[in-house]
Design goal:
373 residues; alpha+beta; D-amino Acid Aminotransferase, Chain A, domain 1; 3 domains; 6-stranded mixed beta sheet; 5-stranded mixed beta sheet; 15 strands; 19% strand
């Protein structure tokens, strides 16, 4: 007996998504992809909603692809606490890959289209281009037979073009699971079916404490997935990977990155990042610091000129000169007039506006229009 709901059409899914705006139902023309954009405390309380992680339906409403359900890290949920899991049940330990999940879909029994959770994307196009050259005719036939049989083959696209945290030196399209569309059951495949297949670490975790210590101490690997025969799965991630992933996540919002630069905290983060991300951060930090210095020099010049015009009188400075300045520059000018160091004044002003994206836009002129991508 498995833990998964039976799904045949999109009508089996839509009622569970009502009043849950965290899910996106994306009409892609001849198919619909359903995925979640963010998670609230009760988002995945319903087993149907746990299926909405890239599930696909044809325009007719028929289910055509069922990639992984949403599953969690060990210790993340009540059901994934180490002492809540029945480790005596049959299970395997698989290497967890740090790429992008992709899967094939066939609408006509002849042509294969590759998709990510969102549908056909630049990432799935990379995987498709690789598969064209890497798969033999027999392997293509095997994929089509699997799809025609109502199964979704699930792959991980690992590539230097698509680095998340772990760097893979060469392209690999790794088969990690087979899943039955209607029942959600996870199946097995004959070894050697595909050019690359997920590695098994073991047929059980063995002594739990030793396994967890081993997994947490891994370097240059994401960790493991423990998969039980009833479909229950749990992720066990390396401490180093979690730290590096959090560092990368912190770069998603400019307000975080700008604060990091202003607080001289980039040196702590750079060693944890992929080279491309580190180079982008270095470039942005240089731009911000250079432009902030330019603003500080301009501020000092404004105040010096204003003091000359007002003969050093604060009241005259306020009435005759300050009105010429922008609201931001006006407030900073008075602090410099009172003896504060211009560069620190500019820095403090920008820091006060790093609480939101709107705030960052308010002070963007102070950093010369520099923008984090």
């Amino acid at each position: 007996m498995t833990q998964f709901p039976e799904i045949r059409t999109i009508d089996d899914v839509l009622p569970a998504l009502k009043d849950h705006p965290e899910f996106a139902i994306k009409d892609q023309g001849d198919y619909v992809a359903i995925d979640y954009n963010y998670a609230e405390p009760g988002t995945f309380d319903d087993p149907i909603r746990r299926e909405c992680r890239g599930i696909k339906f044809a325009k007719s409403g028929e289910l055509i692809a069922r990639p992984y359900h949403k599953f969690f890290n060990i210790g993340e949920k009540e059901e994934t606490q180490p002492d809540a899991i029945d480790w005596s049940l049959p299970h395997v330990v698989l290497e967890k890959l740090d790429g992008s999940m992709v899967h094939p879909v066939s609408f006509d029994g002849e042509t294969i289209r590759w998709m990510t959770r969102a549908g056909e994307t630049d990432i799935s196009a990379q995987a498709a281009a690789y598969a064209t050259g890497a798969f033999s005719e027999d392997q293509w036939d095997c994929l089509l037979d699997t799809l025609d049989g109502g199964w979704t083959p699930i792959f991980e696209w690992c590539s230097p073009q698509n680095q998340i945290v772990i760097r893979y030196p060469e392209n690999k399209l790794v088969l990690t699971a087979l899943r039955h569309n209607q029942s959600g059951v996870y199946g097995t495949w004959v070894a050697g079916t595909m050019p690359h297949e997920v590695k098994m670490w073991g047929h059980s975790v063995g002594e739990l404490d030793k396994f967890l210590a081993h997994a947490c101490g891994l370097e240059d690997k994401e960790g493991y997935v423990v998969r039980f025969t009833n479909g229950f799965m749990v992720k066990v991630k390396a401490d180093a990977y979690v730290l590096r992933h959090k560092a990368r996540d912190s770069l998603l919002l400019e307000k975080n990155v700008l604060r990091m630069v202003l607080e001289n905290a980039t040196d702590d983060v750079l060693p944890l990042l992929a080279l491309a991300d580190a180079d982008r951060l270095k470039g942005y930090a240089w731009d911000v610091r250079f432009q902030m210095g330019t603003t500080a020099c301009a501020l000092a010049d404004h105040v010096a000129y204003g003091k000359t015009l007002s003969w050093g009188d604060r009241k005259t400075f306020a009435t005759k000169f300050a009105p010429r300045l922008s609201p931001l520059m006006k407030g900073m000018a008075f602090r410099v007039l009172d003896g504060a160091e211009p560069h620190e004044v500019v820095r403090d002003c920008i820091l006060r506006h790093c609480g939101s994206s709107t705030g960052v836009d308010t002070v963007r002129d102070l950093i010369g229009g520099a923008r984090w991508q």
